[in-house]
Amino acid sequence: MTLSTSDADGRPDARILILKNVDRRGWHFASKAGSPKAMQVDSQPQVALTFYWPALGRQIRLRGIATLLPAEECAADFLGRPVGARISAVASRQSEALEDEWQLEANISETKALLKANPDYVSPAWRVYTVAPDTVEFWQGASDRNHKRLRYHLTDDGQEWESAHLWP
User: Rounded to whole angstroms, what are the CA distances from 39 to 43, 86, 89?
Assistant: First the structure.
């Protein structure tokens, strides 16, 4: 999925992430604290998610508020990741400039040793957020460009969903 956020200057930012889960609270994704996406979500929790299936000509767009899940859920998610993914999450200084490749290799070596000695280690920087949508739009492409669009919007009181067919 694509997660879209806004930076401190209001400029949009988007990146592809893995959808971790969907439950009654919303759509879940993970991030490392201190990463640009986590800092953007923490300062401006209004985000958008986009799913696109080009072979089917389908898209789903969601907009809503991202909320950090409890620490125990973040820890469970971290421990549920493959060991290589945990090593990468701990060793990486996500989105910072990498001056020398040896820095990354050294961090990976140190992290492998840390996790081998402490297999239940949980990175305190690991976060899982959920996006509770207030708007969901379904789009079905058509070869004649007469696309089908259906939007659901949560009422202001949060009790009901209103739907509308949209122009292509």
Answer: 6, 20, 16
Tokens of 66: 């991202």
Instruction: Quote the tokens at residue 83.
Output: 């060991």
For 129-142, how does the pLDDT look when each residue is reduced to its tens digit (9 = 90+)?
999 999 999 999 99
Burial class from Cβ neighbours inside 10 Å (0-12, 13-18, 19+) for residue 3 reads buried
Asked if pLDDT for residue 88 goes beyond 90, the answer is yes
Domain count, the chain: 1
For 133, the domain range is 2-166
Q: Is 27 exposed, middle or buried (0-12, 13-18, 19+ CB in 10 A)?
A: buried
pTM for this entry? 0.92
Element (H, E) at 134: strand 126-140
